[in-house]
Amino acid sequence: MTNQTLLLQQLAEAIEAEVHGDGEITITGVATLASAKPGQIAFLANEKYRSQLDTTQASAVIVAPNVELPAGLAALRTRNPYAGFAKVAQLLDTTPKPADHIHASAQIHPTAKIGANVAIGANTVIAEHAVIADDVVIGVGCYIGPRVEIGRATQLWQHVVVYHGCVIGEHCLVHAGTIIGADGFGWANEQGKWVKIPQLGRVVIGNRVDIGASTTIDRGALDDTIISDGCIIDNQCQIAHNVFIDEDTAIAGCTVLAGSCRIGKRCLIGGATAINGHIEICDDVQISGFSMVIKGISEPGVYASGIPAAPHREWRRNGARYRQLDELFQRVKKLENQLASASE
């Protein structure tokens, strides 16, 4: 993408903000308050950085309606400055596309259907009966398996693999090294030997889903693994077979979702969380990082289970006390019984 240049007034109209100061200022990029240079726009979303308004070199800032501004500093006023900044950053984004044309080395099967304005990078393989919609961009070295469907304006970065029969919706973004549709971990045990269970389902991904680098989403065993509209999944996550994730849920890096768990709408799952299989988490649940969820959650709210780091000597003492916990419980229980008997 080439460099973008927009007037402050144009940005205000695009994000539905109110202009403070000169709307004809030219904006060429975004930055933080501390690092911004003339021509860039910054934002204030956290009160602890308010003092930086007085020293910023930004040509304009994005702030809440009630924020006092230094004399001469132009601004866009909006109720959610952080979301406003995200929208402005999209408008001024200079990230290149994964590909800008269909490369001569791309291998496209004659039965594949390729839409209008599609770009396919070098050495990418599009297998038989794949359907690639208009405006899709597929980067270098990707593999799109048989009967895969990719919706309009979706982008795949380099070395993404999409196994047979999987479906990706419109306006999705899949980062490099991600694997969609590998076999789920399905095995039966017969007299100590493992018998593989063919994984016959698909992965079905909705619209506007963002998937980070080196994430793996396994296909279903019989039914499909489903990622619903608007979900965002960070790098190096593992989504096992037959997982269902409902709309607008966010999952941070290195999280593991075991098979057949169901995650509700608008959940926020912190990094390195592990969620047990065959359990259900309701809508609007926030799980702190490094949590281990072993049973279902039926009430919205904030949940946590990780053990914070501590100085090594303190950790060893606490570990020793933890091993004595059952003995201590039995002693307290015995004392309670003795007190109860004495009061009768």
Automatic annotation (TrEMBL):
Gene Ontology BP term (one): lipid A biosynthetic process
Keywords: Acyltransferase, Lipid A biosynthesis, Lipid biosynthesis, Lipid metabolism, Repeat, Transferase
Superkingdom per UniProt: Bacteria
Domain UDP-3-O-[3-hydroxymyristoyl] glucosamine N-acyltransferase non-repeat region residue range list: 25-91
GO cellular component terms, A-Z: membrane
Signal peptide coordinates: none
Molecular functions (GO terms): N-acyltransferase activity; UDP-3-O-[(3R)-3-hydroxyacyl]-glucosamine N-acyltransferase activity
Known pathway: Bacterial outer membrane biogenesis; LPS lipid A biosynthesis
Reactions that this protein is recorded to catalyse: a UDP-3-O-[(3R)-3-hydroxyacyl]-alpha-D-glucosamine + a (3R)-hydroxyacyl-[ACP] = a UDP-2-N,3-O-bis[(3R)-3-hydroxyacyl]-alpha-D-glucosamine + holo-[ACP] + H(+)
Pfam families the UniProt entry points to: Hexapep (PF00132), LpxD (PF04613)
Keyword Lipid metabolism recorded: yes
Residues annotated as the enzyme's active site: H241 (proton acceptor)
Enzyme Commission number(s) from the entry: 2.3.1.191
Annotated InterPro entries: Hexapep, LpxD, Trimer_LpxA-like_sf, UDP_GlcNAc_AcTrfase_non-rep
PANTHER family reported for this sequence: UDP-3-O-ACYLGLUCOSAMINE N-ACYLTRANSFERASE, UDP-3-O-ACYLGLUCOSAMINE N-ACYLTRANSFERASE 1, MITOCHONDRIAL-RELATED
Protein family according to the UniProt entry: Belongs to the transferase hexapeptide repeat family. LpxD subfamily.
HAMAP family according to UniProt: LpxD (MF_00523)
Function of the protein: Catalyzes the N-acylation of UDP-3-O-acylglucosamine using 3-hydroxyacyl-ACP as the acyl donor. Is involved in the biosynthesis of lipid A, a phosphorylated glycolipid that anchors the lipopolysaccharide to the outer membrane of the cell.
Known partners and oligomeric status: Homotrimer.
Protein name (Swiss-Prot/TrEMBL): UDP-3-O-acylglucosamine N-acyltransferase
